[in-house]
Amino acid sequence: MSLRTVVLAKIIEKRALAPQTHMLKLAAPRVARHAQPGQFVIVRVSEGGERVPFTIADADPSAGTITLVIQEIGDTTKAIGAMSAGDSLQDLLGPLGAPSEVETFGTVVLLGGGFGIAAIHMLTRALRDAGNRIISIIGARTRDLLIMENEMRAASDELIVTTDDGSAGEKGLVTQALERVISREPVHRVVAVGPIPMMRAVAEVTRPHGIKTIVSLNPVMVDGTGMCGGCRVEVGGETKFACVDGPEFDAHIVNFDELVSRNRMYTEFERGLRTDCKINRLTAAG
Ligand SMILES: Cc1cc2nc3c(=O)[nH]c(=O)nc-3n(C[C@H](O)[C@H](O)[C@H](O)COP(=O)(O)OP(=O)(O)OC[C@H]3O[C@@H](n4cnc5c(N)ncnc54)[C@H](O)[C@@H]3O)c2cc1C
Ligand code: FES
Prior knowledge:
It is a single chain. This protein is of the alpha/beta class and 286 residues long. The protein has 2 domains: 4-96, Beta Barrel (Elongation Factor Tu (Ef-tu), domain 3), CATH 2.40.30.10; 107-262, Nucleotide-binding domain of ferredoxin-NADP reductase (FNR) module (Rossmann fold, 3-Layer(aba) Sandwich). The chain is built from 9 helices and 16 strands. It has a 7-stranded antiparallel sheet with strand order 4-3-7-1-2-6-5. The protein has a 7-stranded mixed sheet with strand order 11-10-9-8-12-13-16, with helices on both faces. The two termini are 23 Å apart. The chain binds flavin-adenine dinucleotide and FE2/S2 (inorganic) cluster. Flavin-adenine dinucleotide (FAD) binds next to strand 4, strand 6, helix 2, helix 3 and helix 8.
């Protein structure tokens, strides 16, 4: 494993992609050299701060930079949102996680929602370079929340955009567009990254058709190296650690109920409703 820690990762460029969603280009030469689709980094904004994972949306080995797309959700992501080009993150560890499977499958449909659009970007390009026909489906609630439409169009043979309110592309959900594509032509593989309900719904669309479906799971992570147990998920009746065994798994055998309930426990802790969360004691310990 070519794991690197970058101390004081400098923000080379930062721009807003949508309200509360930021694109950051960071100086991380050795991470950029080794990054593969599907991998992520764990960053800290300050010493003693929370460790938070973000997917590598792009990597440029010649410039020595990686790109992250960060959605403001809580304290750490808001702190990053308030930073500017020239500022530095305290540290950045990566590339972490198992790389995505990149082979010639045939027709691959990639679905992205929210920051999941950025998370499928590198994989979309790699799968197309491997000779697959790429149909990308990206969705958002409204037009102004839609990100990376041009980049995804350039990386795909066909791009379908959906919004809940019809303000851009088709009105409806990404899963409705997926159903239509499946009824129209043979699909050999589906990859979905986004909110848990979206990934779960995609799994239920493809299950009756027996189409291999990959999702990128987002449990709470702390060390990112398989040591703390924070990112435990159940897949095919077995315990897996998303940070080293994933984050990508076969959607048809993921225990989504367990994932939802573990993330809910963490959210309650963040809101101060619980004090018995081992994960946060580890985080607080640095
Ligand atoms: C492998 C992976 C890749 C991810 N990629 C991206 C990305 O590219 N862009 C992006 O915007 N977000 C990404 N996320 C989610 C991102 O890590 C969380 O939004 C972030 O940690 C929230 O931290 P916070 O302090 O701002 O919010 P908090 O208030 O601390 O948490 C808000 C919610 O975020 C989740 N969360 C918090 N801390 C963690 C943590 N350490 N690990 C995982 N989830 C956490 C929990 O569900 C929590 O309820 C990814 C998560 C994982 C596991
Ligand atoms: S984050 Fe995966 S085991 Fe600690």
